[in-house]
Design brief:
Blueprint: H1 2-8, E1 14-19, E2 22-26, H2 36-45, E3 51-53, E4 56-58, E5 64-66, H3 76-92, E6 98-100, H4 103-119, E7 128-137, E8 143-154, E9 158-160, H5 162-172, H6 175-196, E10 202-206, H7 217-228, E11 235-240, H8 241-244, H9 249-261, E12 264-270, H10 278-282, E13 287-290, H11 292-295, H12 302-317, E14 321-324, H13 330-338, E15 343-344, E16 353-354, H14 355-366
Parallel strand pairs: 5-6, 8-10, 10-11, 11-12, 12-13, 13-14, 14-15
Antiparallel strand pairs: 1-2, 3-4, 7-8, 7-15, 7-16, 8-9
Helix pairs in contact: 3-4, 4-5, 6-7
Length: 368
């Protein structure tokens, strides 16, 4: 990598390695900020060809952040920090690109660093909790189960949205202990609700891409179910299409192993990503979840109506159970009932609530 960067750098430029896989290129003699663009593009082009190492060809890409003196800093530390912020922005844009620093980027990076700092130890400090959103039978409106959702309240940051902290947990590896926490909590609560209120309750838990690289995944799930006493088919594991994109054999092997155990597998957020129908045939899915973005406009948008109708038809032809997310109105529910969607969840029924609130509701119904 260093050699390729040195080849592309101009005479008078400096290439150095900061550490790990991070390099810095110092450009002099620029008449304006735009002059850095062709240099950045040429540096990226050096990674188009494969690296030949030990008879193997390896493909790498680069992400570049650009900070300009003195606009983005008048000392080395500020320039480095701001170039780093721009580099992270390039990674978020899909990698293999370059970005100039902006003040907004700096705020984003500082926020990210703070989140990452506070996340370490947060599980041990009891800052994470599991909330549950009811899943409802569309026709009877009876609660048939719940989806477990991870929530984080930090003394310094307050309530942190999952959209913010889940991605960081994935990248840092903290997602594995966090997911084990959710699985254990959710399975144990389900056992309590089954034993005391509704024996047929099920629980849905999200699996992240990172978890499939954990060799202990199947053993952990098996032991958690065994310790709780619930049946294997009481657990439904939700994955997104992004998990399947890599096509790694170990992902399919894990899904088959879980399916052989009797654990249900759900395709979450179907239609929002790459949406290959082949996934539904190639992998052992039991449930198809239709994302809320399609449900929100089914009463006013013909295209969304037709799409949801088609998704339900596809799922039923493949003998998959259908769950509609984000149901908020009676009109949406009526449409889903008319088109034979079996299960729904959303604010029409309830937002995500605590385990204690669920127990109170079930206790009250028990004495009616």
């Amino acid at each position: 990598m260093a050699e390729r960067l040195r080849i592309e750098a101009r005479s008078g430029d400096t290439v150095g390695r900061l550490g790990g896989d991070e390099f810095i290129v110092l450009l002099g003699g620029l008449s304006n900020a735009k002059d850095a663009s062709p240099v950045a593009m040429n540096l990226l082009s050096q990674f188009a060809a494969a690296f030949s190492i030990d008879s193997r060809e390896l493909m790498l890409s680069a992400s570049i952040g650009i900070a300009i003196y003195p606009i983005d800093g008048d000392n080395p530390s500020d320039l480095l920090r701001n170039a780093d912020a721009a580099m992270y922005y390039s990674k978020e844009q899909g990698r293999n690109t370059y970005s100039y620093f902006t003040t907004a980027m700096n705020k984003d990076v500082l926020r990210r660093l703070l989140l990452e700092e506070q996340m370490h130890g947060a599980l041990d400090r009891g800052e994470f909790r599991v909330s549950y959103q009811p899943k409802v039978n569309v026709l009877s409106r009876n609660i048939i189960g719940f989806e477990a959702l991870l929530r984080w309240r930090n003394p310094e940051l307050g309530d942190v949205a999952p959209d913010e902290f889940i991605a960081i947990a994935e990248q840092t590896g903290l997602i594995v202990p966090l997911s084990e926490f959710v699985l254990t909590e959710a399975i144990n609560k389900t056992a309590h609700w089954q034993n005391n209120y509704v024996p047929s309750f099920t629980i849905a838990v999200n699996l992240s891409p990172r978890q499939f690289r954990d060799p202990n995944l199947i053993a952990f799930i098996t032991e958690a179910i065994k310790q709780s006493g619930i049946s294997n088919d009481s657990l439904e594991l939700e994955i997104t299409e992004g998990v399947l994109l890599s096509g790694h054999a170990y992902i399919k092997e894990a899904l088959i192993a879980l399916n052989d155990m009797g654990v249900k597998i759900a395709m979450d957020d179907f239609g929002t990503g790459y949406s290959s129908l082949s996934y539904l045939r190639k992998y052992p899915f039991d449930v198809l979840k239709i994302d809320r973005i399609f449900i929100s406009d089914i009463t006013v948008d013909n295209a969304d109506r037709d799409l949801v109708h088609a998704l339900i038809a596809i799922a039923r032809s493949l003998k998959l159970q259908v769950v509609a997310e984000g149901v908020e109105t009676e009109e949406q529910l009526a449409f889903l009932a008319e088109h034979n969607c079996e299960i729904a969840q959303g604010y029409l029924f309830s937002k995500a609530i605590t385990a204690e609130q669920i127990t109170e509701i079930l206790e009250a119904k028990k004495h009616l």
